[in-house]
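seq:
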Amino acid sequence: MKNRKISYKRIFGAIILLLLIIALIWGGITAWMVYTGKLKLNVPDPEKYPVMGVDVSRYQGNIQWDVIAGQDVSFAFIKATEGSSYQDPLFAFNWEECRRNGIYAGAYHFFSFESSGETQAQNFINTVGPLDDDLPPVVDLEFYGNYGADPLSKAETREILDDLLDTLEEYYGVKPIIYTTTKAYYQYLFGGDYGDYPLWMRNTYFKPVEDWAFWQYSDKGELEGYDGKQVDSLEKYIDLNVYNGTYEEFLSEFSLASVEVTQ
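struct:
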């Protein structure tokens, strides 16, 4: 019987194929775990990002702001308005109690593709009023409803957005913060004249690559101090954020005084 020669090429090819199969399986498992939230690649290092915050709306229900403040929360963005006529029913309570308990407060407006920037700004101004040692106003630019599949044009959106931002800046004397998603950022903001606006990026998977001031890294946060009670549902989660810098840089960038708790 003749000895068969060992085919090293075949062995090498089989090894490569096996490694590729393992990599594909591992990649699929990792992607699934990230998607379901079982694996988090986006948890900020508290030593690098020590300034933590939350953002809330009526969905968090009744909030005990003294309890929130006791969990190393330095700032909170609170929903005030949406479009030209909607006001969050819990804004006034949240705004007052947040500030009273020593948390730096920022009010945010949910941008509408369906009404003018001036009327949206006026809705915010009428609801929030003047700011006193608070964070700048926030414009929340993201897709909703059918606009995700059928986006408004860049020109039309920027016209509304620019009027909204300009009106708020004229009234408050400070550039608003822009909150946005990755998709909305590259659809409407990238390449535009928005570099001077502080950017608050939402990315619940990875640290943003954009030049951000705030990062919403989780929409599945859980803290003590809110019941999440709704008329027909119960909200379990709260959004978590960090500032891109130290506490001293946070105070300096937004001209904030050292906070005092009033009882």
